[in-house]
Design a protein that fits this description.
The chain is of the alpha/beta class. 51% of the residues lie in helices and 9% in strands. The chain folds into 3 domains: 4-87, Gyrase A, domain 2 (2-Layer Sandwich), CATH 3.30.1360.70; 165-375, HUPs (Rossmann fold); 399-585, Isoleucyl-tRNA Synthetase, Domain 1, CATH 1.10.730.10. It is built from 21 helices and 13 strands.
Length: 594
């Protein structure tokens, strides 16, 4: 693990201690004015308030100490008491060589390894994936990869919605249409191994069933009774449920694969149904579950609440269980089967109350500590009108259609830019998919997780600016350079032995690239601790920009001086390797060429 910021911070902390002040005042950060300094420390201002001294006086005393430290070529006071720091060439050279030798490319590793269950995706069975499922999949996949890269053991679970009222609606609708099916007439089976309907039938069946239940109270009652019968174990209904799940999952896997999204577990609410009777008995014995108007509830409100937190309906008056119950049962199941230290949920912000209730209930029942359950909520993807993204016709865009749309647009942009011309149709098609997915994913992840953002495909697809295609192009440029230098292996192993780098840092663009490379650990640590992939996006973009300046300013392959040429090739290899690592953590695949 390498953090130049932290290592320099230790030296500044020691300087504060040497003048009789607390070391904590010595924290450093990247300079706000990189044209003036590499790093800065603002601790003198905070220290001045504590000891009632002039901040410039404190800063000057610290600078006097730091000017004797060979790690800095400049340490000076600026403004009301800021300390500006310029790192020595030897320190930068050592940093890059260490990053070269690091199998993690200078990335951050968590000091304490945890086992984490990451719950993301969360689609409902029988409904096609749509644009509303996009952010959970993209953010969840990125967090899974980032956390794994930091050393954590992460289990990703899609957590299918396959056990609620929509199942009863589907079953009752199918029975009305095809009453002769054996699932309705036979109580025990056997039942056919092949589903009685296709995926297309299923996708038509659900909205029709839902609309019918909304329009007709009698139909809604049928659906509730079918849901209760399914959860009660009726064999024919269970067989149909398995068909519905199998059809839906097959389609989901194709769509998620195109997005470079994968799950370790494909479990749903129905998988924990066997636990429900046991939990009911346990919760009653603990006096956590109590009757209320024919239902059974768990009270989760607290005396110090500043808002109303209603009780959980664990079993409704019809005798069926809902999402609260299955989510609590899922926590119990994960605790028993996986023994995680922490469970993270990547679900949109509209579910904040739901998860607050569930986490409190799980804690109250002694099933899992509330402080190790995290709801990593996110904002919405909106259209240019500021409202949740819709098709031009006003409907919800299917995820399949969105993937095809970005792939087609990426193909257009590649042709407009004169790229991919020497590829065959299959390779060009795959590169278009990778560019389109990179545009879509980076546009989402580059925003702070909790903010809304506007879907603007033209901007996302640009090969200029802070976009996925720009980053892919930067990587492909580095790869092409290394290929011409016959140093492609440098993307996996830069092999810096016997290379003198310090001479390369006389060029400001090379120095800027080195500082960007040395900030990888800080960006990664921030992304892990704050559960915020956008911090890693910021790093990837800064790195790509720094390499672009370096590439424009410095001769590389045609540099006459051998030692300098070798140093610049190594710098290029380190940049390419680190950019690839960052993109992989974000769930973005890199093409060999464009």
């Amino acid at each position: 693990m390498f953090s130049l910021k932290d290592r320099l911070g230790e030296r500044v902390e020691a300087a504060f201690q040497s003048i009789g002040l607390d070391a904590s005042f010595g924290a450093v950060k990247a300079a706000d004015r990189p044209d003036l300094a590499d790093f800065q420390c603002n601790g003198a201002l905070a220290a001045a308030k504590t000891v009632q001294r002039n901040p410039r006086e404190i800063a000057a005393a610290v600078v006097d100490v730091l000017q004797k430290d060979p790690a800095f070529t400049k340490a000076e006071v600026a403004g009301p008491g800021f300390i500006n720091l310029l790192v020595s060439t030897d320190v930068l050279s050592s940093a890059i060589l260490e990053i070269c030798r690091d199998p993690n490319g200078g990335g951050w590793r968590a000091p304490d390894r945890e086992k984490i269950v990451l719950d993301y995706g969360g689609p409902n069975v029988a409904k096609p994936l749509h644009v509303g499922h996009l952010r959970s999949a993209i953010i969840g996949e990125a967090l899974k990869r980032i956390l794994r890269s930091a050393g954590h053991e992460v289990v990703g679970d899609i957590h299918l919605g396959d056990w609620g009222l929509q199942m009863g609606q589907l079953i009752s609708e199918l029975e009305r249409r095809m009453p002769a099916l054996p699932y309705f007439s036979s109580s025990e089976g056997p039942f056919p191994s092949a589903p009685p309907i296709s995926l297309a039938d299923l996708e038509e069946l659900y909205p029709a069933a839902s609309a019918a239940c909304k329009a007709d109270p009698a139909r809604a009652d049928e659906a509730r009774k079918a849901t209760k019968a399914l959860q009660g174990g009726r064999a024919g209904y269970r067989a149909l449920w398995r068909h519905f799940v199998a059809l839906s999952v097959a389609a989901m896997k194709t769509n998620y694969a195109d997005l470079e999204v994968g799950f370790d577990l494909w479990q749903g609410e129905g998988d924990v149904d066997p636990l429900i009777p046991e939990l009911i008995d346990d919760l009653k014995s603990k006096q956590v579950l109590e009757p209320s108007d024919g239902a059974w509830i768990i009270r989760v409100a607290r005396e110090d609440d500043r808002k109303t937190v209603p009780p959980i309906i664990f079993i409704n008056s019809e005798g069926a269980v809902g999402y609260h119950a299955t989510d609590i049962a899922t926590i119990v199941d994960r605790a028993r089967s996986l023994a995680p230290h922490r469970i993270l949920y990547v679900v949109d912000g509209r579910q904040q109350l739901h998860f607050e209730q569930v986490f409190r209930a799980a804690d109250r029942a002694g099933y899992f500590p509330e402080n190790r359950l995290e709801h990593l909520w996110f904002g919405t993807m909106n259209g240019k009108d500021g409202k949740p993204f819709k098709t031009r016709a006003g409907g919800v865009l299917k995820l399949r259609d969105l993937i095809d749309m970005v792939k087609e647009r990426a193909g257009d942009r590649l042709r407009e830019g004169g790229l991919a011309e020497d590829m065959n149709a299959q390779e060009r098609d795959e590169v278009a998919r990778m560019v389109g997915v990179a545009a879509l994913k980076f546009a989402d992840l580059a925003n702070p997780r909790t903010t809304d953002y506007v879907f603007d495909l033209d901007r996302f697809m640009s090969f200029e600016g802070k976009t996925g295609p720009y980053l892919l192009y930067a990587f492909v440029r580095i790869r092409s350079l290394l290929e011409k230098a016959d140093r492609l292996a440098g993307l996996d192993d830069p092999n810096p032995d016997a290379i003198e780098l310090s001479g390369a840092f006389s060029d400001p663009a090379c120095r800027e690239l080195a500082l960007a490379l040395a900030s990888f650990a800080d960006a990664m640590e921030g992304a892990v601790r704050r559960r915020s992939p956008h911090l890693l996006c910021d790093h990837a973009f800064r790195l790509a920009q720094a390499f672009s300046k370096f590439y424009a300013a410095c001769r590389i392959l045609d540099e006459a001086e051998v030692e300098l040429r070798e140093a610049r090739i190594v710098m290029s290899a380190v940049a390419g390797r680190q950019l690839k690592l960052a993109l992989e953590m974000l769930g973005i695949a890199t093409p060999h060429r464009m």
